[in-house]
């Protein structure tokens, strides 16, 4: 009888836009204690737009945008897309960049007009051991309070500009967090973004636990941390960076807009990018497996 129930469950899941890759995980979903969501692209739309630029020294806004767009010309990241779009809007032509290097969870670097240029977030500054001039620190603080992601331009070792980018929280994220709380599930958020932004988004949504400024190689350790507390943990993500955490989780859930790597690491794939589908998944698991007992 068990295989039949499982089969019905799987097709029910499919009707609800869920592709089950691991049936045991699907069964475990009904007992989850915690669900960790990736922030960018999962709880938010990941559609950044540049909303502010601050520069120091001789560089003006257009010059900063030009250099940043050049360094970001090869990057797939949504931050890169936002910077290129902002340059386009001002009709700025980015010069060619060479020696491009993507630094996972930190930013990008390249050679532009003979200079070494970096664009990246707080993790990049830590890595370069670069101090933030006070004008940029104030700008970044204000942006962070407004849940805006800040990335910095470092030119020949000097921090010369900061860009503030606004993302949009998905409408369904609010209801999803509330519904998971109603099911007695703790909700956590995991992100490589700054703790300012992470906390602002978490406060807005009522999220219980925040892991911010986490490097891609450390994301699975945060899942493990909750598991070590004896919790059964679900992880929801979309990015290449989320793959190890999805694998580590008791129930790994990739959302529709996710990258191939995320999808291949997940136990369940949500066809759409709707956080409410995570709630439906838990409820479906509870409803289906109760019948088996
Ligand atoms: P998340 O965990 O929020 O999905 P990532 O791990 O992709 O984010 O990136 C973490 C941080 O690394 C970003 O918030 C940003 O500060 C920096 N970063 C990553 N890629 C880039 C890029 N192409 N340009 C600038 N900054 C980047
Ligand atoms: Mg993401």
TrEMBL record:
Highest taxon listed in the record's lineage: Archaea
Write the lineage as a comma-separated list. Answer: Archaea, Methanobacteriati, Methanobacteriota, Stenosarchaea group, Halobacteria
Q: Which family does it belong to?
A: Belongs to the cation transport ATPase (P-type) (TC 3.A.3) family. Type IB subfamily.
Q: Where is the signal peptide?
A: none
- Organism equals Natrinema salsiterrestre
Q: Where in the cell is it found?
A: Cell membrane
Q: From the Swiss-Prot or TrEMBL record, give the protein name.
A: Copper-translocating P-type ATPase
């Amino acid at each position: 009888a068990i295989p039949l129930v499982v089969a019905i469950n799987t097709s029910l899941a499919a009707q609800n836009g869920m592709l089950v890759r691991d049936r045991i995980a699907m069964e475990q979903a009904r007992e989850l204690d915690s669900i960790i969501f990736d922030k960018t692209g999962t709880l938010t739309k990941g559609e950044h737009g540049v909303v502010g630029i601050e520069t120091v020294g001789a560089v003006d806004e257009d010059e900063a945008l030009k250099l940043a767009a050049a360094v970001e010309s090869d990057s797939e990241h949504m931050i890169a897309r936002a910077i290129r779009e902002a340059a386009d809007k001002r009709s700025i032509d980015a010069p060619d960049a060479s020696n491009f290097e993507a630094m996972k969870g930190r930013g990008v670097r390249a050679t532009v007009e003979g200079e070494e240029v970096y664009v990246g977030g707080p993790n990049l500054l830590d890595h370069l051991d670069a101090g933030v001039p006070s004008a940029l620190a104030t700008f970044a603080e204000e942006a962070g309070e407004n849940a805006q992601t800040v990335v910095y331009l470092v030119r020949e070792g000097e921090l010369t500009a900061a860009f503030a980018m606004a993302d949009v929280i998905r409408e369904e994220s609010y209801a999803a967090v509330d519904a998971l709380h109603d099911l007695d599930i703790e909700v956590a958020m995991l992100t490589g973004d700054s703790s300012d932004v992470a906390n602002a988004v978490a406060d807005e949504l009522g999220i219980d636990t925040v892991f911010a400024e986490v490097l891609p190689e450390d994301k699975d350790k945060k899942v493990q941390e909750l598991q070590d507390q004896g919790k059964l943990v679900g992880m929801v993500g979309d990015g290449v960076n989320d793959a190890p955490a999805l694998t580590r989780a008791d129930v790994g859930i990739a959302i529709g807009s996710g990258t191939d790597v995320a999808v291949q690491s997940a136990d369940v794939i949500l066809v759409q990018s709707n956080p409410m589908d995570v709630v439906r998944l838990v409820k479906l698991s509870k409803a289906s497996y109760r019948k088996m007992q």
